[in-house]
Amino acid sequence: MSNNRSESPVAIVTGAGRGLGREHALALAKAGYNLVINDLGGAGDGTGADNTPAQQVVAEIEALGQQAVANGADVSNWAAAGEMIQCAIDTFGRLDGLVNNAGILRDRTIANITEEDWDLSIAVNLKGTAAPLHHAAAYWRDLSKQTGEPVNASVVNTTSASGLYSMVGQSNYAAAKMGVASMSVVAARELARYGVRVNVLAPAAVTRLTEGVMKTEDLKQRLQPGFVSPLVVYLLSDAAAEVSGRVFEMGGGSLVAVDMPRPGAGLRHADGEWTAERIAAVMPQLLAEVPDAPNSAEAMKFMLTAPLDE
Ligand SMILES: NC(=O)c1ccc[n+]([C@@H]2O[C@H](COP(=O)([O-])OP(=O)(O)OC[C@H]3O[C@@H](n4cnc5c(N)ncnc54)[C@H](O)[C@@H]3O)[C@@H](O)[C@H]2O)c1
Fold first, then answer.
1. Residue to mutate (ligand 1; options 200, 209, 210, 296; most atoms within 8 A of CB)
2. Of 76, 98, 99, 104, which is best to mutate to test ligand 1, by the most ligand atoms within 8 angstroms of its C-beta?
3. In DSSP terms, which residues pair with 99 in a beta bridge?
4. Most buried by CB count within 10 Å: which residue of 21, 174, 241, 277?
């Protein structure tokens, strides 16, 4: 899927050394992008660092005939995230797309969670999306003001069914990922005037983060990370020029547009003064009109039974 640009467009993919990020980067390279391949290279729980995975993906992209540069920034480091954005501009002279994909898991129930589990998950999954988004947004805002034109740029941020559907055992991750979704809609509204689109992806794929729960060969075949990447290519392309502030799930052959929270049912008190007793009296009626928060099993069933695209 191409863009109407006179030279190769440029994108940054964070966490692109393996898993979904690597597939997004390879798909974008095949679509003609030059890329900054960011990856800290640590373990799935966010510990450690290794620049080998990012360098390997750079070599794969060069073999496809596109240009790529490795970047080892920890995306949760505000200054390092800024240097990563600058790396794209210094190396390629432009920035058209940002795919915030880096993420980690530190699964614990809320009773068992440690401060470190909480802080690291929020840092990488939420701040690690906000920091690159901030620096890219500031660059695009300034460019748009200089030229007096919208910049035509696109961001894809990564959320998770865990956040959207409140999975047990993942309070830290769910908080971060739901934060990513809401922050992205805010950013889409703020940045529209500069010609920047911001959308959200909840992927489903067997990677090192999920292979512990998705163990069978059948699941590995059906939930290949590369099946998700066409949505990223589409969202960065001009074909998605009218699509912003949207949340999608993609994986296992299903593409779902997610409805973000909206008011469900309401009652007004004529003079504004509710009492606790009156609230108790109307609560059954109010809740009868609004279903419980969706859970992941319902969401998975929805994905698996979506009508076929024929
Ligand atoms: N696999 C799934 O089914 C699934 C489901 C929902 C959401 N996600 C999300 O998709 C994204 C990709 O996950 P994946 O399954 O490919 O996992 P993965 O572990 O294979 O890849 C994540 C990559 O992010 C990198 N990374 C981690 N912390 C970083 C940091 N601070 N700075 C820079 N890079 C960092 C890691 O080194 C790794 O290469 C994550 O945000 C994850 O939360 C995945």
1. 209
2. 104
3. 13, 156
4. 21
To the query of whether residue 173 is one of the catalytic residues in this protein, the response is yes
pLDDT tens-place string over residues 158-202: 999 999 999 999 999 999 999 999 999 999 999 999 999 999 999
User: Does residue 16 contact residue 61 with C-beta atoms inside 8 Å?
Assistant: no
The boundaries of the domain holding residue 34 are: 10-258
SS3 of 35, please? strand
Looking only at the bridges linking them, the beta strands covering 153-158 and 97-100 are parallel
Domain count, the chain: 1
Give me ligand 1 centre to Cα 36, in Å. Answer: 16
184-156-68-145 Cα dihedral, nearest 10 degrees:
-50
Q: Give me the CATH number covering residue 173.
A: 3.40.50.720
pLDDT at 6: 64
Q: HSE on the CB side for 85, CA within 13 Å?
A: 25
The tens digit of pLDDT for each residue in 48-106 reads 999 999 999 999 999 999 999 999 999 999 999 999 999 999 999 999 999 999 999 99
227 occurs within a structural domain: yes
Alpha helices of 77-170 — where are they, by DSSP H? 78-92, 115-121, 128-147, 161-164
Going by alpha carbons, the residue nearest to atom 40 of ligand 1 is 103
Taking CA atoms only, the protein residue closest to ligand 1 atom 1 is 205
69 lies in some domain:
yes
Report whether 75 contacts 50 (CB < 8 A): no
Question: Which residue bears the tokens 């790529």?
Answer: 68
- Residue pair 161/248 in contact by the 8 Å Cβ criterion: no
Q: For residue 205, which atom of ligand 1 is closest to its CA?
A: 3
